[in-house]
């Protein structure tokens, strides 16, 4: 799967998990169109939020080079819970599952 040019990412926030005081986590990133997108994960441990940010950053680099996703990225997307995968689709990080 390749990410379309209009979804090329510019940066992922340095602090991978943005806590809201109730344990809910999100990863924010900037798209090439200058809009800030937020991937909301719900109530997950900070370590999981950091892992998601690492994968998002990896997808960002792959997209910037115009390459298809590598095996690790594809496997991570395949392992995701359907709800979280749908959230990634909503922010343009993944293609819908068939």
Subunit arrangement of the protein: single chain
Counting DSSP H or I runs of 4 or more residues, the number of helices is 3
Unreliable stretches (pLDDT < 50, length at least 5) are 1-15
Roughly what is the average pLDDT, rounded to an integer? 75
SSE diagram, text form:
Layout: E1 9-12, E2 24-31, E3 36-43, H1 46-65, H2 71-79, H3 82-90
Antiparallel strand pairs: 1-2, 2-3
What does this structure look like?
The two termini are 13 Å apart. The protein has helices at 46-65, 71-79, 82-90; strands at 9-12, 24-31, 36-43. A hairpin with a 4-residue loop joins β2 (24-31) and β3 (36-43). It has a 3-stranded antiparallel sheet. The protein contains 3 helices and 3 strands, in the order βββααα. Helix content is 39%, strand content 20%. With 98 residues, it is an alpha+beta fold. The longest helix has 20 residues, at 46-65.
In short:
By secondary structure, the chain is α+β, with helices and mostly antiparallel strands. It has helices at residues 46-65, 71-79, 82-90; strands at 9-12, 24-31, 36-43. A hairpin with a 4-residue loop joins strand 2 (24-31) and strand 3 (36-43).
Quick tags:
98 residues; 3 helices; disordered N terminus
């Amino acid at each position: 799967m390749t990410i379309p040019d209009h979804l090329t990412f510019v940066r992922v926030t340095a602090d991978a998990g943005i806590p809201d005081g109730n344990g809910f986590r999100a990863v924010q990133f900037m798209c090439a169109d200058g809009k800030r997108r937020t991937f909301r994960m719900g109530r997950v441990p900070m370590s999981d939020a950091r892992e998601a940010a690492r994968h998002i950053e990896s997808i960002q680099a792959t997209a910037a080079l115009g390459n298809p996703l590598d095996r690790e990225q594809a496997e991570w997307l395949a392992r995701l819970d359907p709800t979280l995968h749908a959230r990634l689709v909503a922010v343009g990080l993944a293609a819908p599952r068939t």
